[in-house]
Amino acid sequence: MSERKFVRTDTFDKAYHKLDGTVQKLVIAFLHTLQLNPNANSLNLKQPQAARDRRVRTARVNDNFRAVLLRDGETFYLVTVLEHDKAYKLAEGLTMDINKVTGGIELLDLSGLEESTRNSASGAPLVGPDAMPGLFDGVSDADLVRLGVNEVLIPALRELRTEDALLGVCEFLPKLARDVLLSLYDGKCPEEIWQKVTAPEQPDTPLTDAERGDYEAALTRPATLETFVVSSDAQELERNLLRPFSEWRIFLHPEQRKLAYRPKNKPYNGPVRVTGGPGTGKTVVALHRVAALADPQRGEGRGRILLTTFTTTLADQLERLLKDLGGQELASAVTVRNIDKVATSVARHPSATVPAMLGDLELLKRWRDLLTEQAEPGRFDSRFLLGEWTQVVLAQGLQTRDDYFAARRRGRGLRINRADRAEIWALIEEYERRLEQDQAVGFKQLAATAARIAEAGLEPRQQYAHIVVDEAQDLHAAHWRLLRALAPEGPNDLFVCGDTHQRIYDNRVTLGSLGIDIRGRSHKLSLNYRTTRQILAAAGDLLDREQFDDLDGGADDLAGYRSVLSGREAELTGYPSVRAEMSALVNRVAGWKEAGILPQDIAVVARTGALCDAALDALQSSGTGAIRVDAGKAPRVGDYVHVMTMHRTKGLEYRAVAVIGVSDQCVPQPAALTDAAADPLQHAQDLRAERSLLFVAATRAREALAITWHGRPSPFLVHRARAQ
Ligand SMILES: Nc1ncnc2c1ncn2[C@@H]1O[C@H](COP(=O)(O)OP(=O)(O)OP(=O)(O)O)[C@@H](O)[C@H]1O
User: Fold this and answer.
1) CB 242 within 8 A of CB 19
2) Whether the Cβ atoms of residue 605 and residue 658 lie closer than 8 Å to each other
3) Is the pTM of this model over 0.90?
4) Is this complex's ipTM strictly greater than 0.95?
5) Which residues are annotated as a binding site for ATP?
6) Which of 180, 184, 593, 618 has its CA 20 to 30 Å from the CA of residue 645?
7) Nearest CA to ligand 1 atom 16
8) Do 323 and 360 fall within a single domain?
9) Which residue of 248, 256, 647 sits with most ligand 1 atoms within 8 Å of its CB, as the best mutation to test the pocket?
10) Cα(9) to centroid of ligand 1, in Å?
11) CA-to-CA distance for 704 and 303, rounded, in angstroms?
């Protein structure tokens, strides 16, 4: 007899978590009975008379609720738990099939689909001069099938004539079909959709005819695991259901799964890079990759694992998510540290005095002080010198005057001659001498020291077999040299996730030149799980046609970047004064709260601390609980709207986001821009970072985004603002 298996869908989990506690307990009891004896009378397992699929059953949970499931031999596919009549209605139109392209199992809710198309079409003229064409008239059935749309869906899909009708049917479609149809609706051609949407879901080897009907084999395919999870017994199922529902822990997109979990005999033969726009699940992939490496059963890991990212706040968040994913056991198997702590752990001797750590603002001030004390004004200003020190000297680990004279200055816009180099080196020596004297050190300087120590050789117990990096776009060259030296070359050594469209610090690198060879091991995620299509479109416009690098000397773009979530358009609104903007903010936040969004799911974001203070003041004076989210501190828990600068928003997400003060005087922030005449390249890079900051802030929004300004709008907004 084959082993009894429970396969639950994401819809089952969602339905379970919406039930009240007493019904949940009954669902668990039902599962235990099903495990012990699927033929038990108390289950009242029935095949609806009008069922389209002979495998469909409903079963009794209590007098009001029934579970909907499919039985295929000893395998039970748990679909949902619904009120009695709704359960029967769903069960009658439900079928299950194996997708011909992906080999993944799909549930097809034909009654829901047909009813939704019928309702949306009622009243619309289908013939005559006013008849509306079908949304997909220009796409052949053959193309739809080739793209992975099951042919039984096609007649109903041909009835769709409006966007509302399409959005209405989305909830009844398998995930791939939904993604394909929305991409077609967005104007993408079948070929592009094949490449970006469907092909990545294909299994590694093409399906044979026999495999197309083999459900047992289909159960293990990544495309199935996007929607289904297999449990071997009711206890395991119960344990999983009792945890809070977070889809990302269980239901990965096939691309995400393939990246995170490698077959045993196919390790990555070197560093891997994962890119993708905001919200595409890079962090989720990084966490699952760590889980795969830490799982002794899988045999992928060879030793210590480090998970690192840019800030302490993000590292704390990663640690929390790692616990969500694999409990304390997983969290204890991994070192989670932000990159500065990694550097500190290598560079600082435990008994040495702890130096003062200086950020860029303080370092810039010290450059200014040094220059003011010079007898004669030199050719170089403080911003240039800070850049030269960090982007050339620390980035390359230059230690001597000769090294500096021989160094290439890639990415620096101002040409300098030998006399200039001599002048600059003398200033840098004096600058570093003063830092040492004051027992102070810059963060990148510390990283450069740590890299030097690690490159000279570390004890094996200080090294890591595997390093997983999140928010990689903001790491400095010295960080990369350090990480390279911390993880000796080998299978699965480095796994790097990042998105250069979100680079908000001026750290550009070419990984290859730093000993991190990602050739042939580069992957891009493109399905956004966070943000609606409307918000993505507005955020995408902020980037204009700016060029972005791919961390390795090439170019990156957001081709194929998309979302299947739908919602309201982003709002872009200008006001005559700050006062008017703040008063509108107070009303907007009140509106969001009235619509059921909790205060802690709302963020107010500004470019400067002063504007944050003004917003905080306006909100608090109106009686709205609000707090500032500051560096290094986890946001206070409670019913507060979070107010923060754009820099703080990195890696976070909220249901509603108001980005305020996006005026021409404030974004880009004049103080953050190098003078174009002094260094045109640097000026362009500073502008790009300012644009990315706004992009990062806007892409934190899941459902609602408002971008506002007073006076004239920021030049980054101009064509959107005009089009509104
Ligand atoms: N397979 C999935 N199923 C459901 N939700 C997912 C999935 N993958 C990611 N998410 C959710 O999408 C959101 C964005 O994911 P994540 O933070 O990993 O994206 P990211 O690419 O790292 O984003 P960013 O670059 O903007 O920081 C999170 O809420 C995450 O839980």
Assistant:
1) no
2) yes
3) yes
4) yes
5) 276-283
6) 593
7) 281
8) no
9) 248
10) 19
11) 44
- 281 C-alpha vs ligand 1 centroid, how far in Å? 3
On whether residue 556 sits in a domain, the answer given is no
364 and 326 housed in the same domain: no
> How many A from CA of 78 to the centre of ligand 1?
26
Ligand 1 atom nearest the C-alpha of 280 is 21
Same domain, 409 and 498: no
Question: In this predicted structure, what is the pLDDT of residue 721?
Answer: 63
**Which residues span the domain enclosing 107?**
5-225
What CA–CA distance (Å, rounded) separates 273 from 220? 25
> From the CA of 528, how far away is ligand 1's center (Å)?
7
Closest residue (by CA) to atom 28 of ligand 1?
Answer: 530
Q: Which two tokens stand for residue 204?
A: 């590694």
Q: Do residues 309 and 192 both lie within one domain?
A: no
Please tell me whether residues 481 and 386 are part of one structural domain: no
Q: pLDDT under 50 in the chain at which residues? A: none
Pocket of ligand 1 (CB under 6 A): 247-248, 251-253, 256, 276, 278-284, 499, 502, 529-530, 651, 653, 699
Q: In this predicted structure, what is the pLDDT of residue 59?
A: 96
pLDDT at 243: 84
Q: 3-state SS string over 397-455?
A: CCCCHHHHHHCCCCCCCCCCCHHHHHHHHHHHHHHHHHHHHCCEEEHHHHHHHHHHHHH
In sign, the C-alpha dihedral spanning 418, 422, 424, 429 is: positive
The pLDDT value given to residue 362: 95
Structure confidence at residue 506 (pLDDT): 79
Ligand 1 atom nearest 252 alpha carbon: 1
| Rounded Cα gap, residues 204 and 258, in angstroms | 10
